[in-house]
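Please decode residue identities from the backbone states below.
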């Protein structure tokens, strides 16, 4: 039985990845910080909260990571933990850097010292590209131009991961994932804010959704599809970096329209309030990934389409609110 350590196991991607690997008979360890009341709701949603062995540690505490790697010596480590809300990274730039940058360095050092055969996956992000593109697309060769403290911190993590591969021969790889969502996405993210807001409006529990830039365009996929790509990246004979995306771009406006139309509300604009506090100091206008390499090398393609994703998220929020 292979063993795996997943950081960020309580977030969005962690539970989907844990479920996927449990179905492949992995023994799954989940890294959690010391909480008084840890929130297992996302794992409960997928029905796997009692199938994971939890280990307490912190990405900002190098000694805790060394003890964990030394103790379990996992076959694979997927580093999904991060301060991942881009908007907060301007106000919490130090914390964002400590977790997203130094945390990766600490994990890699622990692997190098105590379990050099461990494979390491770093969750990189399309935010690293900023507004840089080649013919309107981002691929593995597109220059990086990060436009937020979050993206800058992730770029350090990307390069230090590459550096450990080149310096020490460690199996280290980056999955540069474009935006991916699901019913367990946090409500602070614009997609879940929209679907939760639409569900509340439909049920008479709310009347407005406050948003920033409706014209921002993103390449949105389903988190459940994207964790399969993470796994495939780690099963290659040699480590490499891959773009994971749908190749389709939709605006925040498109997302709103699709969500409202699904519940039968056509005059959706009257429920939207544009609030300047949700606009970024440095805007990232459009992302559209070209994942030909993932298709050709990994045999991976996204399964869930944009409209299906929106409807899946709205259905889940309607169900939650009705149950309450």
């Amino acid at each position: 039985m292979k063993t795996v350590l997943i950081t960020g196991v309580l977030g969005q991607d962690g539970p989907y990845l844990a479920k996927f690997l449990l179905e492949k008979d992995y023994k799954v360890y989940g890294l959690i910080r010391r909480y008084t009341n840890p929130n297992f709701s996302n794992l409960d949603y997928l029905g796997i909260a009692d199938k994971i062995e939890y280990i307490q540690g912190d990405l900002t505490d190098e000694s805790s990571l060394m003890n964990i790697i030394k103790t379990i010596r996992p076959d694979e480590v997927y580093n999904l933990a991060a301060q991942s809300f881009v908007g907060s990274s301007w106000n919490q730039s130090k914390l964002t850097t400590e977790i997203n940058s130094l945390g990766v360095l600490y994990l890699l050092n622990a692997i190098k010292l105590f379990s050099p055969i461990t494979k390491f996956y770093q969750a990189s992000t399309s935010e690293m590209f900023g507004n840089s593109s080649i013919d309107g697309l981002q691929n593995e060769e597109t220059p990086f131009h990060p436009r937020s403290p979050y993206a800058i911190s992730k770029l350090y993590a990307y390069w230090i991961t590459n550096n450990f591969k080149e310096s020490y021969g460690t199996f280290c790889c980056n999955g540069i994932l474009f935006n991916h969502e699901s019913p367990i996405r946090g409500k602070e993210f614009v997609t879940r804010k929209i679907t939760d807001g639409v569900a509340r409006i439909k049920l008479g529990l709310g009347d407005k959704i406050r948003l920033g830039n409706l014209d921002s365009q993103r390449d949105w996929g389903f988190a459940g599809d994207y964790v399969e790509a993470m796994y495939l990246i780690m099963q290659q004979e040699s480590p490499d970096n891959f773009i994971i995306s749908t190749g389709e771009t939709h605006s925040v406006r498109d997302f709103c329209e699709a969500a409202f139309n699904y519940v039968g509300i056509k005059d959706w604009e009257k429920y939207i309030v544009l609030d300047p506090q949700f606009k970024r100091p440095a805007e990232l206008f459009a992302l559209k990934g070209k994942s030909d390499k993932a298709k050709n090398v990994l045999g991976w393609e996204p399964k869930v389409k944009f409209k299906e994703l929106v409807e899946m998220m709205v259905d889940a929020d309607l169900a939650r609110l009705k149950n309450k």
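Observation: The mean pLDDT is 95.
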